[in-house]
Amino acid sequence: MSQAHRHLALLLLAEAVLCAAAMRFQDVLSNGRTAPVTNHKKIQGWSSDQNKWNEKLYPFWEDNDPRWKDCWKGGKVTTKLVTDSPALVGSNVTFVVTLQFPKCQKEDDDGNIIYQRNCTPDSPAAQDQYVYNWTEWIDNCGWENCTSNHSHNVFPDGKPFPHYPGWRRRNFVYLFHTVGQYYQTIGRSSANFSVNTANITLGKHIMAVSIYRRGHSTYVPIARASTTYVVTDKIPILVSMSQKHDRNISDSIFIKDSPITFDVKIHDPSYYLNDSAISYKWNFGDGSGLFVESGATTSHTFSLQGNFTLNLTVQAIIPVPCKPVTPTPSLPTPAVTTDASSNSDPSAPNEMAEDNPDGGCHIYRYGYYTAGITIVEGILEVNIIQMTSIQMTESQAENPLVDFVVTCQGSFPTDVCTAVSDPTCQVSQGMVCDPVVVTDECVLTIRRAFDEPGTYCINITLGDDTSQALASALISVNGGSSSGTTKGVFIFLGLLAVFGAIGAFVLYKRYKQYKPIERSAGQAENQEGLSAYVSNFKAFFFPKSTERNPLLKSKPGIV
């Protein structure tokens, strides 16, 4: 009897040793990582990583195993695993894994791997030669039954492949692992899937993937990858700020007396908050009070200079299924409703449940954003008040020159840029920038040369370290050489001589007819009348100045 007991104990010990030696999913998919022992809630559609792994059908290689060098023809396959994390708890987080084949290899429409046309691989090969002809085994096997050695259409845990349309042309096995559980699927050169985060604990987690390819009698590992994802109970938000005259949107420096636009982006790629009531509570930190908006975009104007702290609280009221009510013998108590809209403290709970009057249920989620911004004076406005063509002589430059007189409001500029483009202001023809020093009054004269006469669109930008403002004008530029100017002068003098002769003749006829010669006293009177006509004639053809109230009392320096 004691002998039988001894044999039974040996058998049990041997079985225990074999069970301990059996490889499990955790051993393969954790890739050497030692995860802390935690009781995770079960993710729907996932399995425990304590299940046994079929190492005979799916061999496991360590990272330094030399067999990795020969696991793929023509080179090494790499993989890229990306995620749309962070994810609000209760929403879905999506992962996309993509295989990147060696140079000149691609996947065709049938799922086979071939060399690309008109591509020279590192190792010369015939064009259109198969790297892996996966379709061959499909032709050798029937649709339902296959008795050849290609019939190993099962996952490492022994579960059969899903037989949805086209499954036989999906020749890669993807095995995902996270929080002590795994998910397995088949696919082609890329795969994606989503996981609901309701049963995943808050914080950072690692998603790892191992990819196997179909082999002759087994599956062969070809690549591994991992990435970090985050599950949070706070609504992930991003705020972008913009302003009309702001020069650098990334420095958090803005201009006073000019509206700043705040645009809130909620990161919700799975549309978990689509049916939620969302509100935005703003505190701009300038003493203007609290503002509650229903839209994601708002604007605010700071009237003072200085440093301010912006605070935003986003509240989402999310409809959820009501939990079943279990009657209790306790005495009824008054219902208490929490005013979640007044909760803007980031340390406060981020989830509150309430019953709606119509019998439905919902929870509150919050997101918080804080940023420091600086308000400065800045350049608010630029105006072109005068444009003057500069006439040049033969010995000077032939390019037409134009002086632009520009004024600005706000702070003084440190640089000026002039952009010249076609009359539609679409095709740029060049830009010139110069530093400027303004100490008293923002009035600048900017001299610019043009390649040839014509019509141009001019954009003049004045800027400092934090702001810039723009003024535009459409200008017609005449020729700048002296020959054109000389021709204009001769034409003008010719017309002046003609009008002078006509005027002299009219005056001569008039005063000869009505002036008696013998009256010497009247001669002086008529001479005064003739002087008045000559003065009017001279004033008409030779004006001294056409600008009675010049805008500039003194000519500023030319840039």
From TrEMBL:
KW Glycoprotein (keyword) present: yes
Membrane topology: Single-pass type I membrane protein
Compositional bias ranges of the Polar residues kind: 335-347
UniProt GO MF annotations: heparin binding; integrin binding; receptor ligand activity; syndecan binding
PANTHER family in the cross-refs: MELANOCYTE PROTEIN PMEL 17-RELATED, TRANSMEMBRANE GLYCOPROTEIN NMB
Principal localisation: membrane
Species whose genome carries this gene: Coturnix japonica (Japanese quail)
InterPro entries (UniProt xref): Ig-like_fold, PKAT, PKAT_KLD, PKD/Chitinase_dom, PKD_dom, PKD_dom_sf, PMEL_NMB_N
UniProtKB keywords: Glycoprotein, Membrane, Signal, Transmembrane, Transmembrane helix
Residues covered by region (Disordered): 329-356
A GO biological-process term: positive regulation of cell migration
Signal peptide: 1-22
Record Pfam families: PKAT_KLD (PF20433), PKD_4 (PF18911), PMEL_NMB_N (PF26141)
A GO CC annotation given for this chain: plasma membrane
Gene this chain is encoded by: GPNMB
Highest taxon in the source lineage: Eukaryota
Bilayer-crossing regions: 488-508
Family per similarity comment: Belongs to the PMEL/NMB family.
Descriptive protein name: Glycoprotein nmb
Annotated compartments: Membrane
Stretches assigned to the PKD domain: 275-314
